[in-house]
Specification:
The chain is an alpha/beta fold and 394 residues long. It is 39% helix and 18% strand. The protein has 2 domains: 145 residues, Aspartate Aminotransferase, domain 1 (Alpha-Beta Complex), CATH 3.90.1150; 242 residues, Aspartate Aminotransferase, domain 2, CATH 3.40.640. Bound molecules: pyridoxal-5'-phosphate.
């Protein structure tokens, strides 16, 4: 009884003193280890959602925690007004993992900020203003990013919208060709549309987008806030399944990049970077030491633990096990960004029943699709735990 009242106390206090954001799950997170989250009353939950895809290295990876603790004792923060070996190491590590043409990093604090800066870089470099994005894509909630988000009610929430945003159809190159004139600075897309229900496009679409952008002098931006940092089984979607040469001019990152310490980044081509001058971009917190220590440690942890190959193995194990369930039409996505498409609109009901069995999953704007964005360190026994529950509720 005492434990139950602790949760109720926490919930009542948050609800009283905080503005509403999301509909919250009926649990209070207290600590985490790997793919498991422990609540204030000591219960444990299998986390197949990672706090909005953030906990890619798993909760409290020891290497990441140690790096953050050590850095906190040295210097928490100083801005880009001075040099820092911690920032130098994070930028070098990230750039060396990126496709070779993306040779410069810009650090900020979140995904929406990374996208805003990417669009600004494109406008500054091209001298043009318009941006093409895609129906179903999600790019964040600040003014420019929400205006670029043609998904459900989001764009409306951002009114009055930033002018010059054009919509095309994901996977349909002709719809892009129709609007990509000489006033367009950038084409920006989520290479896998996560919130829309884990929608994928054919590899040729990306190759043709690259060609079109080159022909028309348009900057191509991949919003890899969800697909980046190992989630698809590759470090980035860019340069992977559509071919090594199919690479954008800018990749934006956030979420997994700092294992939970807020950080975003743009990875930018040399050619674009050469057109950015001092004071064109700026940020107080971006590139701060605590976040930079978290970035380096996150990338190292993924490497040290072989998480990329684990993602590939867990995807195939999940797909194999999910094929046992007749209520599922198909499984969308790549790596550990998976959308389980049911035959009926049951994603929310399944999510709620899974939660009762102590498994956290995500829904999407497609009522048929349950989303999985688990830590990249997911184990076969975690998949078995999930499957045992799913077989009973789906
Ligand atoms: C693909 C994508 N881009 C951008 C964002 C915005 O990131 P943030 O919430 O860190 O601003 C999100 C957040 O869900 C996202 O999924």
């Amino acid at each position: 009884m005492v434990k139950e009242s602790l949760f109720q106390e926490i919930a009542a206090s948050e609800d009283r003193f905080q503005l509403a954001t999301y509909k919250k799950m009926p649990l209070a997170a207290a600590r985490g280890r790997g793919a498991w989250l422990y609540t204030s009353d000591g219960a444990r939950y299998l986390d197949l959602y990672g706090g909005h895809a953030v906990a890619a290295t798993g909760h409290c990876h020891t290497h990441v925690v140690r790096a953050i603790q050590e850095q906190a004792g040295e210097l928490l923060f100083y801005s880009n007004l001075v040099y820092s070996d911690v920032r130098a190491r994070a930028a070098e590590k990230l750039v060396r993992l990126a496709p070779p043409t993306l040779s410069k990093a810009f650090f900020c604090n979140s995904g929406t900020e990374a996208n805003e800066n990417a669009m600004r870089i494109a406008r500054l470099a091209s001298g043009r203003e318009k941006v093409i994005t895609f129906g179903g894509g999600f790019h964040g909630r600040t003014a420019d990013s929400i205006s670029a988000t043609f998904l459900g009610k989001y764009r409306e929430l951002g009114r009055p919208n930033v002018p010059g945003h054009l919509e095309a159809e994901f996977g349909d190159i002709e719809s892009v060709e129709r609007v990509a004139d000489e006033t367009v600075a950038a084409i920006m897309l989520e290479p896998i549309q996560s919130m829309a229900g884990v929608r994928v496009a054919a590899p040729e679409f990306f190759a043709r987008l690259r060609k079109l952008a080159d022909e028309r002098g348009i900057v191509l931006i991949y919003d890899e806030v969800q697909t980046g940092i190992g989630r698809t089984g590759e470090w980035f979607f860019a340069g992977s399944e559509a071919g090594a040469s199919v690479v954008p001019d800018i990749i934006t990152l956030a979420k997994a990049l700092g294992s939970g310490v807020p950080v975003g980044a743009c990875l930018v081509s040399e050619q674009l970077a050469s057109q950015i001058k001092e004071n064109d971009l700026g940020t107080t917190f971006g590139g701060g030491m605590l976040a930079m220590a978290a970035v380096t440690a996150t990338l190292e942890a993924i490497e040290m633990d072989g998480m990329l190959s684990n993602v590939v193995a867990m995807e195939s194990y999940l797909r194999e096990r999910l094929s046992e369930i007749s209520a599922i039409r198909r499984v969308r996505g790549r790596g550990l960004l998976l959308g389980i498409e049911f035959k009926e609109d049951v994603a929310q009901a399944v999510q709620e029943k899974l939660l009762e069995r102590h498994i956290i999953t995500g829904t999407s704007s497609d009522k048929r699709v349950l989303r999985l964005l688990p830590p990249l360190c997911l184990k076969p026994e975690d998949v078995d735990f999930f499957m045992e529950a799913l077989i009973n509720v789906a």
